[in-house]
Amino acid sequence: MSDVPDRVEQRRLTFPPSYRLKRRRLIRSLFDRTRDDVRTAAEGCVRLLYRVVDRAVLGHDVPLQVGFAPGPRAESGVERNRIRRLLREVYRVHQYTLVDPFVCGPEALIVMILFRGAPEQADDGIGRDLPPALRRAAASLDGRAD
């Protein structure tokens, strides 16, 4: 057996602050219904809104930026923070599904991950539904015109 670990095992599953979507202008562009470049992927209680942008627009030299929204049914701050934390954790583990296509290119991806379910189903639903939604978004991006 080789002493060199598999490439996937070498990856660091971190989520640095530069990967967080914070600019209002970029977030607003994802929710603008008049834009035709915004795509969506839904799976169970999770919906992804995403679009490809020029890397210079982000303000950081990163392949993508991600934002998280817990949804209107999370009434207390404790529920909102717990749902956001679960979304971040599951995304952090599965992030390379979306990161890999944009690492070497001039474009970047902005993504908003929305939780649409009841707060009671967050523990089971996010871990079950977010990875397939990320794969579906990555599959739709593979067919984009370069």
TrEMBL record:
Entry's Gene Ontology BP terms: tRNA 5'-leader removal
Sorted UniProt keywords: Endonuclease, Hydrolase, Nuclease, RNA-binding, tRNA processing
Organism (species): Salinibacter ruber
Keyword Cell membrane carried by entry: no
Protein's name according to its UniProt entry: Ribonuclease P protein component
Biological function: RNaseP catalyzes the removal of the 5'-leader sequence from pre-tRNA to produce the mature 5'-terminus. It can also cleave other RNA substrates such as 4.5S RNA. The protein component plays an auxiliary but essential role in vivo by binding to the 5'-leader sequence and broadening the substrate specificity of the ribozyme.
Annotated family: Belongs to the RnpA family.
Catalytic activity: Endonucleolytic cleavage of RNA, removing 5'-extranucleotides from tRNA precursor
One Pfam family, short name: Ribonuclease_P
EC numbers, comma separated: 3.1.26.5
Self-association state and partner proteins as the record states: Consists of a catalytic RNA component (M1 or rnpB) and a protein subunit.
InterPro entries in the record: Ribosomal_Su5_D2-typ_SF, Ribsml_uS5_D2-typ_fold_subgr, RNase_P
